[in-house]
Design brief:
Blueprint lengths: L6 H18 L3 E8 L2 E7 L12 E3 L6 H8 L3 E3 L20 E8 L5 E9 L7 H73 L5 H36 L8 E4 H11 L1 H6 L3 E5 L7 E4 L1 H19 L7 E8 L3 E8 L29 H12 L3 E4 L6 E8 L8
Parallel strand pairs: 8-10
Antiparallel strand pairs: 1-2, 1-6, 2-3, 4-5, 5-6, 7-9, 10-11, 11-13, 12-13
Helix pairs in contact: 1-3, 3-4, 5-7, 7-8
Length: 407
C-alpha cells in the first residue's frame, strides 16, 4: 500500500460523510481503512451521535465486523437489522447499538483494497435504492481522489529523484573543479620537491634553479589555496541552503515597505540598464504580516538579480513588475519580467538546487532554490512558476500572521 499524507483528504471526506449521513438520515457515516491485519476508522461524519473516533482500530481477520465481509467479498453488504439476522446478531458493532448497515468496498490504485465506505443506524433500516446509489457515487468519487493522489505521489517521487540527480551533478561539478585544481597543484609541488631533493643530493642545485622552482611552487600554493577557499565557500553556501534559520527576529511589518526598500537599493542598477521597474499595491490597505523582513528582502533581491543577470540581458525594452495583493488569510506577490523566460521543458526543475542553464558563465544555480527554501520553510508559504507568454511570472504566497502578544 502506498504511503501518502492524508490530512487534507480526511478533512475533505469528513465533510462529505457529514452530508451523506444527513441525506441518508443516519447517525453514522464512515470510511474504514485496511492496513495489513488491521482496519481502522479513517474518516467519519463529525456529529455528536457518531460513537466512532478516527483512529479506532480492530484486527480484521475473524473479527465478525460488517466491513470484514465487505472487504472479503469486495461487494455490497446491506443489513437492515442485525438483531434479527443470525449471521450478524453478535457482530462487534452491536455493542455500539449499530444494528443497520450499508457498506461498499473502496479500491485504491492497481485494484488494491483501501477499505470501505459505510453508513450505520441504531434502528432497523431498509435502505432505499436512492441511498445505495448515493453511497456508490460517493465511493466512486473517493476512489478517483485516491488514484489522483497516487499519481501525484509517483510524480513527486520522480521529481525528487530528478532534483537529487541535479543536486549530485551540481555538487560534483562545483566541488570537483577546485579539488582537481588542488590535486594538480599538489602534484606539481611534489614533483618540484623531488627535483630539489635530487639536486641537493647531487650537489647540482643552482641559485637560479632554486628560485625558479620556488616560484613555481609558490604559484601552485596560491592556486591550491584559492581552489580550497572556493570549495569552502561553496560548501558554506550549500549549508546555508539546507539549514533552517528560524533564529532571526520576526516583526510585524508592512510588506509594501519592505519591497519598496529593496527597489530603492536597486534604483541605480535598474536605471543604468534602462529597465522599467514598477510596483503596484493597494495603498489604502495595510498589507502586514509577522515575519523576518530580511528574508523577504532576500527573496526579492534574488529575483531581481536573476532578471538583471540572465532574463533581461538581451531585451530591447526590459521591464520588471511586482504586484502585491492581500486576501482574507493570504498575501500574494506576483513577480514578472519580459525577458527570455524559461523553456517549458525546464520549468519543473528551476527550484532544484544547482539547477542552471548558465553554468558556463559562473552561475551555480542556488538562487531559486534559496528562494523556495525561504518562502516554504520560513515564510510558511509557497512559490510557483506560472505560464507566461513573455518572460517569467512567479507567484509567491504566504499567510497573514500576527504577533498576538502585541495585539
Amino acid at each position: 500500500m502506498f504511503s501518502l499524507h492524508y490530512a487534507e483528504l480526511v478533512e475533505s471526506w469528513n465533510k462529505t460523510l457529514a452530508v451523506v449521513a444527513k441525506l441518508a438520515d443516519v447517525p453514522v457515516a464512515l470510511v474504514m481503512r485496511l492496513e495489513n491485519e488491521n482496519i481502522s476508522v479513517f474518516s467519519k461524519s463529525p456529529n455528536d451521535e457518531n460513537p466512532y473516533q478516527v483512529g479506532d482500530c480492530e484486527k480484521i481477520c475473524g473479527s465478525g465486523l460488517y466491513c470484514e465481509h465487505v472487504i472479503n467479498t469486495r461487494g455490497l453488504l446491506n443489513v437492515p437489522n442485525a438483531l434479527t439476522n443470525t449471521i450478524w446478531d453478535s457482530n462487534p458493532d452491536i455493542k455500539l447499538n449499530m444494528i443497520a448497515y450499508l457498506g461498499l468496498p473502496i479500491e485504491a490504485e492497481n485494484h488494491e483494497t483501501f477499505g470501505t465506505i459505510c453508513i450505520l443506524d441504531n434502528k432497523e433500516r431498509h435502505f432505499p435504492i436512492a441511498t445505495i446509489e448515493l453511497l456508490k457515487t460517493i465511493r466512486n468519487n473517493f476512489e478517483m481522489q485516491l488514484k489522483i493522489l497516487h499519481q501525484q505521489h509517483l510524480a513527486d517521487e520522480h521529481r525528487q529523484a530528478e532534483e537529487l540527480a541535479t543536486l549530485i551533478r551540481g555538487i560534483s561539478h562545483e566541488i570537483n573543479t577546485p579539488l582537481g585544481t588542488s590535486i594538480t597543484a599538489t602534484s606539481i609541488i611534489e614533483s618540484h620537491i623531488e627535483k630539489l631533493q635530487k639536486s641537493l643530493k647531487t650537489k647540482t642545485l643552482s641559485h637560479k634553479s632554486l628560485q625558479s622552482q620556488l616560484n613555481i611552487m609558490e604559484e601552485s600554493v596560491k592556486s591550491m589555496s584559492h581552489a580550497l577557499h572556493t570549495t569552502s565557500e561553496k560548501v558554506n553556501t550549500l549549508q546555508n541552503l539546507l539549514i533552517d534559520q528560524e533564529v532571526k527576529v520576526h516583526q510585524n511589518v508592512d510588506i509594501s515597505l519592505v519591497i519598496n526598500d529593496v527597489l530603492k537599493l536597486y534604483q541605480v542598477k535598474l536605471s543604468k540598464r534602462a529597465i522599467n521597474c514598477s510596483f503596484s499595491h493597494d495603498s489604502k490597505t495595510l498589507i502586514q504580516s509577522y515575519l523576518v523582513p530580511t528574508l523577504l528582502q532576500e527573496v526579492v533581491v534574488i529575483l531581481l538579480n536573476n532578471s538583471l543577470e540572465h532574463g533581461l540581458t538581451a531585451v530591447s525594452e526590459p521591464k520588471i513588475h511586482l504586484d502585491l495583493k492581500r486576501y482574507k488569510d493570504t498575501i500574494q506577490l506576483h513577480y514578472y519580467d519580459n525577458g527570455i523566460g524559461i523553456e517549458k521543458a525546464l520549468q519543473d526543475q528551476v527550484f532544484a538546487p544547482f539547477f542552471t542553464t548558465s553554468r558556463r558563465t559562473g552561475c551555480i544555480g542556488l538562487g531559486l532554490s534559496v528562494v523556495k527554501r525561504i518562502v516554504c520553510q520560513q515564510l510558511r508559504g509557497g512559490i510557483e512558476l506560472l505560464p507566461s507568454d513573455t518572460g517569467i511570472h512567479f507567484l509567491i504566497n504566504f499567510p497573514i500572521r500576527k504577533d498576538f502578544s502585541t495585539v
